[in-house]
Structures are given as C-alpha cells and as structure tokens.
Amino acid sequence: MPTTRRRFLAAASATATAVAAPALAQSKETEAAGFEEALRAKFAAGDVLDWRGGNVRLRRPIVIEVASNQLGPGLDLNGAKLIADFNDGAKRAITIRIPAHAKNVALRGMKIMNGTILAESPAQDAIGLECLTNHSWLYSWKLMNLDIEHFARDGLHFDGSVFEGELHGVTCADNGRNGMTFKNNGSIGDIGIVSAIAIFGGQMRKNGNAGIETQSNIPYQEPRDLNISQTYFVENKGPGLLATSGFSMAMGCGFENNGGCGIKLSNEGRLFACRASTFKSQPYLVEAFLNGGSMLLDGCRIEGYGGFEGKMKYAKIGGKGSVLLRASGDRSNVDVSGDIAVKVV
C-alpha cells in the first residue's frame, strides 16, 4: 500500500474519531442501576438480557458471581455503549466470576455481544471472565461484535479455568496494557487453565503493550491453545501477539508496525498466510526462542515501506529447534542464533 494512502487513511480515522466524540455525549443514556438490576436478574435465570435501553454510564463496577450451574446467560447490547465512569483503575467494568471456593460449578454457553465498551475515567478492564480453580469451569462462551477502548489495563481479561471460548469480530484498541490477556491462574495445586480459544477477525490496535498476551502465575506455564484467524494487529507498543509458551495457530492475520515484531514466542508456533508490514518499528514478523520446539511459516508475506523497503525479515530465532519455511521467503530472510535448523520448501 502506498505511503500516501496509509497517511490518508490515518487522517481519515483521526477525523472520524474527532467527529464521533460529541455524539456520545448527546446520545441517550440509561441509569446504570436499572441496567445492573436487569443483568443480574437474567444471569440468575440463565437468560440473555436483550438490552434496548440505550447507552449506559457505569458509576460503579459490576461483579456477577456464579456459584451454581448455569447454562446460556448473557448480554445483547443491541448497539448500545457501556461507558465506565467510576474513576478506579483497579476495578473492571464487568466481572463474571465463579468464586474459587465454589467447586464443581459449570457456567456454560455465556455470551456477550453487539456493542461498545469504553472507559471515560480510569477503569481496569472492560470485561473479566474469572475462575481461579481447576475444579469449576467457565466454558463454551462467546464474545461477539464488540468494540472496546481506553481501559487502564486490558480490554478483555481471561483468568483461570476459562476455556473452549470464541471471540468473533472483537476489537480492542487504545488500552493501557493489552487488548486481551489470557492467564493460567489459581492457587498452587489448583490452577485454572485457559485452553481451546478461537479468535476470528477483529483488530488489536494501539495498545500499550501487546495486542494479545498469554500469562501464568507460574513462569513458562502460559496458555498455548490459542487459534487466531484473520485478526489484524497494528501499532501496539509491544508485539502484536506475545505468546511466551507458544501458540497453536495464526491464519490469515495481519501485523503492521507493532513494537519489535509481529509475534514474540517461545517453544512453538504455526503461521499460515499471515502478512506483516512496517516502515521501521516491526523489523520481523516473528521473534522466537525455541527450546527443542519447532515453528512453521506457510505462505506468509512481508513488506517494508516508507524507506524500509527490502529491510524487513520473516524471523529472528534463537535457542535449539527447527523452522520450516514453506512458500515464505528463503534462508536469507531469517536471522538465526544457537542450534536452529532451517528448512526451506
């Protein structure tokens, strides 16, 4: 894409943002108490709140604790905005939690969809799904068609035994740390494990650290079972994807002008038909350290522009392991240190 077009798009985006801000202030808002009461009632009944009351300004955090089995509760915002405005950077806007002391509890089929969640004063995260035990389960959940912006820490925070989840068309932008964080967490001997996560589309844009990061309260035991398709990572201050223990798959994803690399990983990773571009800040698509693991790049493409033409590389890899490049450049496009075997097909 020509540099001039990129600049035009950036300017157009800035103009759109400037025009949209007054509209938010003038739009209809509903008292948060009524929204919270309705949401709690629907969760207690295992139903979806079909919200038609317009935008909601949250003056305090909402924490919903689920201590008995539930199937199918949720929230459809129908285009409304949730505006976190309680001025506490240590509290998130909405927390859905199975308490750690509640054992053998299953929250299944929860869904949140179709709206925008913003922070207009400090608030930690937009949504947190939390189950800090391996003896209860928050699973088969879906987050769909959401735009999340301006939170002090993460847009979305997934903590503990939160698994078999899907995110469709979810964009997280301008958050203080990560767009999304997936964390294995809980007490030693009872750690909840994040797994079987599928992400489709959306953008991770201009976050203060990574677009998506995996974490664990035990080092090097981070979630690995992430499958990401057609998600765009752009201008995050750190990597687009920071996967300390590796990840399952990225397919058809884009990485542009993130900090240092599009993806930073250890151990393992597979990329299919991913594209990366930069004018300088993201010289590598992937930066990896392997400890006996392997990495695959299949049908990937890279592009430098704006004076960085011909300077971008596919990968920087150290440690011990193997890399397979299939229709993804040649050996000269990879910087290697340590005992790394590179095969090009």
Q: Keywords for this structure?
A:
single chain, 345 residues, mainly beta, 2 domains, 30-stranded mixed β-sheet, four-stranded parallel β-sheet, 2 helices, 34 strands, 48% strand
What does this 3D model show about the protein?
This protein is mainly beta and 345 residues long. The protein folds into 2 domains: 30-217; 248-345, no CATH class. 11% of the residues lie in helices and 48% in strands. It contains 2 helices and 34 strands. It has a 30-stranded mixed beta sheet that branches. Strands 5-9-12-15 form a 4-stranded parallel beta sheet, with helices on one face. A hairpin with a 2-residue loop joins strand 17 (180-187) and strand 18. It is globular. The chain starts with a helix and ends with a strand. Residues 1-26 have low confidence and may be disordered.
Mean pLDDT: 93
Based on CA inertia axes, which overall geometry fits?
A: globular
Helix content: 10-25%
Number of helical runs? 2
Spans where pLDDT lies below 50 across 5 or more residues: 1-26
Report the radius of gyration as a whole number of Å: 21 Å
Total count of domains: 2
Task: Report the count of strand segments.
Answer: 34
